[in-house]
């Protein structure tokens, strides 16, 4: 239970849903969790909960789409803990919009958080991770263990185009591309970068999608969600705990030789 003991982990969007589950799981594995969350009250609540488990947690209310706030996050974490070992880029937004109803404002809003936020959080944290590596290791060009783990949360929506969420699919496919590029850029420093594509999960985001889609299709609340699950080969929704477990594996020493990969966590929905 001490796989991540004393590791300093930033989890964006950790105030609820997948991010909360990841933060909670990391705390149980001994990590110090930084709750980078746009909603200040949820950041405080989550950090208090994580601290009650075992490890020290730190709330940091912020907007991941603002690069100045990202720089402030890195500075604050290093000031508090002295280092950063893990980043989980989880914060994201979603909405459905038909092809002809898509607006520039909606497009830009999604890309700002899901694409821009992911890249610049990754870049800022990677700079700090590189700064922590002994010069002798950099000069040698290789090491026997990882000097940082970065996980980006994509989505199976990023695996192919979808007519009613084109802007969301674009943002999440970008996360996969960012992951691959960053993995190659950071490989000389032995920093691992991977991504996870979850499918249907019982989270606030999916709850809101069920509400809007059930209303749009004149269904009873929960019916749209149920029909979506019926299309999954394993015939069930995933759980946030399963996403957290995958993150923990990739961030543990067992994941030291894995980089540039994107894993579907979707019950068989996308076979690639």
Q: How would you explain this protein's 3D organization?
A:
The protein has helices at residues 17-28, 40-53, 67-81, 104-132, 135-140, 166-186, 204-216, 223-230, 240-251; strands at 8-12, 32-37, 57-61, 86-89, 149-153, 192-198, 262-265. It is of the alpha/beta class and 272 residues long. Strands 3-2-1-4-5-6-7 form a seven-stranded parallel β-sheet, sandwiched between helices. The protein is built from nine helices and seven strands; from the N terminus they run βαβαβαβααβαβαααβ. The protein has two domains: 8-199 and 239-265, Rossmann fold, CATH 3.40.50; 201-237, no CATH class. 42% of the residues are buried. The two termini are 32 Å apart. 48% of the residues lie in helices and 13% in strands. The longest helix has 29 residues, at 104-132. It is globular.
Short description:
With 272 residues, this protein is α/β, with parallel strands linked by helices.
Q: Which word captures the global form?
A: globular
- Sheet with the most strands: spatial strand order: 3-2-1-4-5-6-7
Sheet having the most strands: 7 strands, parallel
Helix-strand sequence: EHEHEHEHHEHEHHHE
Summarize the helices and strands and which ones pair or pack:
Blueprint: E1 8-12, H1 17-28, E2 32-37, H2 40-53, E3 57-61, H3 67-81, E4 86-89, H4 104-132, H5 135-140, E5 149-153, H6 166-186, E6 192-198, H7 204-216, H8 223-230, H9 240-251, E7 262-265
Parallel strand pairs: 1-2, 1-4, 2-3, 4-5, 5-6, 6-7
